[in-house]
Amino acid sequence: MTKLSMLGAAIAALALPAFATGAIAAAPDSTGDSWEGAYLGAQVGYGWGRDNIHDEERSSPGFSDYSDHFSLDGATGGIFIGCNWQDGPWVFGTEGDAELSGVNGDNRAWPFGTNMTAEIAGQISLRGRLGYEVDDSVLYATGGLALGDIETHYYDGSAQDHYSNWQAGWTVGAGIEHAFSPEWVGRIEYRYADFGRVTDWTRNTDFGWNEHNDITENAVRVGIAYRL
């Protein structure tokens, strides 16, 4: 299955509960005073992060002779969908997003070959949100599950190892939304994500050793949503 088809399936899975709850939630009124209801949007962003890498000898678990870190950065873009409820000035809800990502970096100092790279090729999150309404804006915090498609490459001359794994972790952040009309809402958001540890066995480039990659990311995203 390609990344696009995987992301499409994830988007469909995210959409169903939001539309179901949106069908029974109160829609925004004509003055835009209510934030309740489902919404669908698109976002673009920039991410920067770190791969903390260390090795481990397969025949001697716990023994390592290498530990380092290197930086990742790049653009992200995708869609998000969610549903809000409101109690006075408090706005709360659920949201999911799915993105393609080019957040990547090179580790040319990897001592067991000629190069090593890591990339967050795709991202999915499922989060809760809690916000406070101020005039036509909402200040909010968000957090929940993060999934990353982590791709790693190891090179040693003509020898290569390549892995692609969906890794589960967590994410937390904050943002601000502003209603430009009863239907259209813009936002800017910061999130931190920890995708946990990806472990690769470098069979061709550093046989007999595992490479542990602990991937974290900071990202700023700008988006626009249509309230359904």
Keyword list:
single chain; 228 residues; mainly beta; Porin; eight-stranded antiparallel β-barrel; 1 helix; disordered N terminus
Describe what you observe in this structure:
The protein is built from 1 helix and 8 strands, in the order H-E-E-E-E-E-E-E-E. The chain has one domain (3-26, 36-227): Beta Barrel (Porin), CATH 2.40.160.20. The two termini are 31 Å apart. The protein has an 8-stranded antiparallel barrel. Residues 3-8 and 10-31 have low confidence and may be disordered. Strand 5 (137-156) and strand 6 form a beta hairpin. The protein is elongated, with a radius of gyration of 20 Å. By secondary structure, it is mainly beta. The protein is 10% helix and 69% strand. The longest helix has 22 residues, at 3-24.
Blueprint (SSEs and pairs):
Blueprint (H helix, E strand, L loop, with lengths): L2 H22 L12 E21 L9 E21 L2 E17 L8 E20 L2 E20 L2 E21 L4 E18 L7 E19 L1
H/I helix tally: 1
**What's the N-to-C terminus distance?**
31 Å
The proportion of residues in beta strands is over 45%
Question: What's the CATH C level?
Answer: Mainly Beta
Compressed to H and E, one letter per element, the order equals HEEEEEEEE
Low-pLDDT stretches: 3-8, 10-31
- Oligomeric state, counting identical vs distinct chains: single chain
Mean pLDDT: 89
Q: Could you tell me the number of beta strands?
A: 8
- Classify the fold: give the CATH topology: Porin
How much helicity do the residues have? under 10%
Question: How large, in whole angstroms, is the Cα Rg?
Answer: 20 Å
| Structural class label | mainly beta
Tell me what the CATH architecture is.
Answer: Beta Barrel
When the domains are counted, the total is 1
Biggest sheet, in brief?
A: 8 strands, antiparallel, barrel
